[in-house]
Amino acid sequence: MNLIFFILATLTIVGTAAAMSLRSAIHCILALTIGLVGLAALYLLLGAQFVGFTQILVYVGAVAILAVFAIMMTQGASAPTQPILSSSWLTGVSVAVAVFAVLAWAIHASASTQTAQPQPEVSVNQIGAALMHRFGLPLEIMGLLLTAALIGAVILAMPEKKETL
Amino acid sequence: MTPDTIDQIFVISKHLLLGYLPSSLQPVVSAILSVVPVLVVFPLLFAITTVLERKGLGRIQNRYGPNRVGPFGFSQPIADGIKSLTKEDIIPRNADQVVHFLAPLLLVLAAFLAYAVLPIGRNMVITNLNAGVLFFFAIGSMVELAVFMAGWSSRSKYSLLGAMRAVAQMISYEIPLVLASIVIIMVSGSLSTVDIVNLQAGYTSIWPHWFVFTPWGFAGFLLFMVAATAESNRSPFDLPEGESEIIAGYYIEYSGFKFALFFLGEYLGMFATSGLAITLFLGGWAAPFSFLTWIPSYFWFFAKLLVLIAVFIWIRGTFPRLRMDQLMNLAWKFMLPMSLLNIVTAGVWHFMPAGIVRWLVCIALLVAPCLLLSRLLKQGKKLQVRTYRFAE
Fold first, then answer.
1. How far apart are CA B124 and CA B127, in angstroms?
2. Helix, strand, or coil here: B208?
3. CA atoms within 13 A on the CB side of B40
4. How far is B54 from chain A (nearest CA, A)?
5. For residue A52, is it within any domain?
6. Maximum average pLDDT range among A46-50, A85-89, B179-183
7. What is the C-alpha to C-alpha distance for residues B212 and B223, in angstroms, rounded to an integer?
8. How many other C-beta atoms can be found within 10 angstroms of the C-beta atom of residue B53?
9. How remote is the C-alpha of B305 from its chain's centroid?
């Protein structure tokens, strides 16, 4: 179990590190996709089947494709000419280390890591039932948000009416 | 040899073989023994399908198909395989080497992974995941990324255009595909493909319990098949890869074995989606009538798969290709509302008491909006009756 975890963690870290350091933007997105697949595999290792497969379905199937389309339509095929590391890399690294420290302290000090709790067996049935009963209002609000996004996308893509003289 | 033994012959022989091994090796060998038959059978089915398709299309178009190579041309796949293996592998100088190499690999990987949750026979599934159908759709979404990678890395106008069209088509038709299967998930209460097939394996007198024999199941099956045709870029939805439109679309810069891999991946995707349609709607490995259950379950799965392949070939030879805007309009303006209505109909079916009223209400709920929607969508266009003149 530990070996698999280390392999997947290495894959995720290498993928996301490559996403930050490659030259071409499309290569960065593809490396990020590898990192996301690694994350999905980690979810599956923890036994969360629904979240793992939904991660692949949503992130790899929709978000990555959205990102490549966006990059393709805005930047084109030209290779970037600026260097990879920006001039303020020290500030960036220190902010990242600070955020990591806060998150690690918060996870370490939380209740579920202090006392050993049994791993809950959550099936898709329970997730569905919780979404429909307990989290019904958030579900409807999410639907509203997605509808607004859809309408916004259609408005952006609609051809403009030409003024007739 | 009782019918049950013949039905379970592969399971029994696998357990026998595993019994001879030490228990440390057993999981690995069990996995290998489950996976290798899929890796062997489905590419063989791909080879047979290529020749069946060419001969079938030829007959539909009033000509012979290939008839030189073997008996009636049935060794054509061997000749095709040798040709594609020995062709020179040309990579454009401007192409993105790594991505160009990885795109066909990702496509074939995703296509093979999808077979892991299809129950080929009774107790014959590679892995019985609790979220099997979700796994299938997640893997299907990796295919779109592979198509985009292929089109982008070739650095060619035609391939990029073809890739964008193909990805737009695939993401548009993924929604009716998933919504049509949500009806089945709703009714069976489980995402596991094995559970869905087991629910359809009963009989009332001689009639089977397949989901396709209900109004919502039939509409769902039709929606699923149309969306599956579009997802695998098959005619009449093959604008991104049509020969006369865009030369070969996103795999225009691939030659030799990589082209064969794309071809293989596309057909394997078609088989996998047909397999899912069989699992969800057509009862999986269950026999059509209760007096036919002595025939083994894997025979019925492949028989249904061959019927669906024949329907795909038939549709390819019959319908003209859809233009891009017609294709997108069909997905978003017709199939999406119909699949949402299908979900409502399935809910109505579930809550009404059994009887003829339930059938009439559900059929009316599906047919009336279908007719109204198609009339509405036809209004802005001037369509005349087409007259055909055949060459004599």
1. 9
2. strand
3. 6
4. 33
5. yes
6. B179-183
7. 12
8. 18
9. 9
Q: How far apart are the first and last CA of chain B?
A: 57
CA distance B180 to B343: 8
In a domain, A143, yes or no: yes
CB contact under 8 A, B145 and A61: yes
A118 found inside a domain: no
**pLDDT over 70 at A80, yes or no:** no
∠ CA A147-A153-A155, nearest 5°, is 105
Q: Could you say which of A43, A76, A109 is where a domain stops?
A: A76
B345 CB neighbour count, 10 Å cutoff:
24
The pTM score is: 0.90
Single residue among A57, A76, A95 that ends a domain in this structure = A76
Domain extents for chain B?
A: 3-376
Write down the residue that tokens 């509302």 correspond to: B337
Residue at A163 is within a domain: no
pLDDT tens per residue, range A19-42: 888 888 888 899 999 999 999 999
- Which candidate, B208, B127, B143, B126, places its Cα nearest to that of B177? B143
Q: How confident is the model at residue A162 (pLDDT cuts 50, 70, 90)?
A: low
- Residue of higher predicted confidence among A89 and B194: B194
Contact A65 B167 (CB under 8 A): yes
* Contact predicate B343/B179, CB 8 Å: yes
Cβ-based interface (< 8 Å): residues of B facing A:
96, 98-99, 129-131, 134-135, 137-142, 144-145, 148-149, 152, 155, 160, 164, 167, 171, 174, 189-191
CA dihedral B288→B289→B291→B293, nearest 10 degrees, is 30
The domain containing residue A135 runs over which residues?
124-156
A70 and A4 in a common domain: yes
Query: How many domains, in total, are found in chain A?
Result: 2
**pLDDT tens-digit profile of A98-133?**
999 999 999 888 877 667 777 777 788 888 888 889
Q: How far is B6 from chain A (nearest CA, A)?
A: 34
